[in-house]
Amino acid sequence: MARRGHLPSQSKSNGLEGISLDLRDEMINIENQFNVTSEKLKRISERFEEELREGLEKEGSNLSMNVTWVLGLPTGDETGSYVTIDLGGTNLRVCLVSLKGQREEIDIKQQACRLPPTIKTGDAETLWDFIVDSLEEFLKKHQLTANRNDRLPLGFCFSYPASQDYIDHGKLKTWTKGFDIDGVEGEDAAGQLRDALAKRGLPLELVALVNDTTGAMIASAYKDPDTIIGAIFGTGCNAAYVENVGSIPKLKTSLPPETPMAINCEYGAFGNAHCVLPRTKYDIIIDDQSPRPGEQTFEKMSAGLYLGEIFRLVALDLYEKGLIFTGQNASKLKEPYILETGLLSALENDPLEACRIRLEECLGIKVTLDETRVAHRLAEIVATRGARLCACGIAAICRMKGITSGHVAADGTVANKHPKFKERWTEALGEILDWPKDRREDPIILTSAEDGSGIGAAVISAMTLYRIHGGNTDGIQAR
Ligand code: BGC
């Protein structure tokens, strides 16, 4: 198993004794390309910190460091019912979230559907119609009605880089996670949804546009006061934390400098200048063939949308060199994005024979047990690098803010479903932050913010309405 930054060398213990010498050599070569040592992790994290600071300093920096107008963490006493919509990378989810206060259990009714590929690459009108259709169906199903003067509050979780002049506004900088929808980039996504709702006459009032990272942090903080950061390790990757207004030089505001402000880092874009991240030829292919080459460099090396694809490209390389699946027509292996990150989780989790069958099903060819062992090892190599890189961003935020303990509330399929992510991430974080090796406990712990988007959007909507009622309308546009 991978330990402290050193991918295991080709020792007898890795189960690859039976493979050819050529394949063994190639595996060593791949391991070396994907290995991120402790020293390298530290260098990446230092550069990360510089980019975080630059983003707070000035507009137009590589990391957007978007102010969110979420002024601090919730008390846990927020109450009320809120409709939320979550446009993630894979699914569209509509929820009715009832907050009960006193950091208590939250009641959620929800409806989710997978986003059809045609939506992801279509036009703005089709996207908003699709969302409004889902909302309308949900309102009907749950018999949610309101009159025009008393519309239901809606929180919109929009998990893309949007700069926010107000909490109920979000100008999309660029699509990420393979989305390529015409007519939204450079525009206010909240305004477009608001118009679509009005056109359909739905009794909803968009109160807040929320990034999923801010949602995860706030949802977690509602119950857990030790929350320090909200992070997504899913289809995409990113994190949010709380800054003081006085430490955001680019923000011109009359708010007192000690006012807390949640920041959506948008750190999937880290390393776009390509000076520190250890990119392999596979990472370069992924970037070149993506709808937005040159963007989201860090995300393309570490997030769930890409791990399966990196694995596929490495496996394809081995196949084309005649080292695996020899004499077979592995044409499926040539189809971009055919292998999902779930396969990598399964390869590390399931018994060898089950993995072999799964590979045969995915690739439509015969797979030997030795080839399955190779696939297992590749899955380990790709996922280990991803988890270790993911620790760099969180370490950088902690160092910049002088945070030494607390909970990082994480959501996303990689964090929640990959069997080894948490362990590898924690180990790498300890290496970067020089935690003692014989520690009894980890000072910074990854906790689960499952359902952060729905609950977070609801709690943020509640916080916003409370602010409006209290007469504090800084950064609030509507009303
Ligand atoms: C988006 C972020 C989002 C992250 C996780 C990235 O592609 O730019 O806004 O938080 O994915 O979903």
Structural class: alpha/beta
Q: In which range does the helix fraction lie?
A: 40-55%
Overall mean pLDDT: 94
Please, how many helices? 15
Strand count, sense and barrel status of the largest sheet are:
6 strands, mixed
- From the N-terminal CA to the C-terminal CA, the straight-line distance is 57 Å
Q: Report the uncertain regions.
A: 1-13
The total strand number stands at 13
Q: In sequence order, what are the helices and strands, one letter per element? A: HHEEEEHHEEEHEHEEEHHHHHHEHHEH
Give the radius of gyration: 23 Å
Largest beta sheet: strand ordering: 1-11-10-9-12-13
Strand content: 15-25%
- What kind of oligomer do you see? single chain
Shape: globular
Unique bound compounds: beta-D-glucopyranose
Molecular structure report:
Residues 1-13 have low confidence and may be disordered. The termini are far apart. The chain has helices at residues 21-34, 38-57, 117-120, 124-141, 189-200, 212-223, 281-288, 297-302, 304-320, 341-349, 352-363, 369-401, 413-417, 421-432, 452-469; strands at 66-67, 79-87, 91-100, 107-114, 152-158, 162-163, 171-172, 204-210, 227-233, 237-244, 260-264, 406-411, 444-448. Helix 6 (212-223) crosses helix 15, helix 10 (341-349) packs across helix 12 and helix 12 packs across helix 14. The radius of gyration is 23 Å and the shape is globular. The strands form three sheets. It has a six-stranded mixed sheet. A five-stranded mixed sheet has the order 4-3-2-5-8, sandwiched between helices. Strands 6-7 form a two-stranded antiparallel sheet. It has 479 residues and is an alpha/beta fold. The structure holds beta-D-glucopyranose (BGC). Beta-D-glucopyranose binds next to helix 6 and strand 10. Residues 89, 159-161, 176-177, 211-213, 232, 234, 236-238, 266, 268, 299 line the site of beta-D-glucopyranose (BGC).
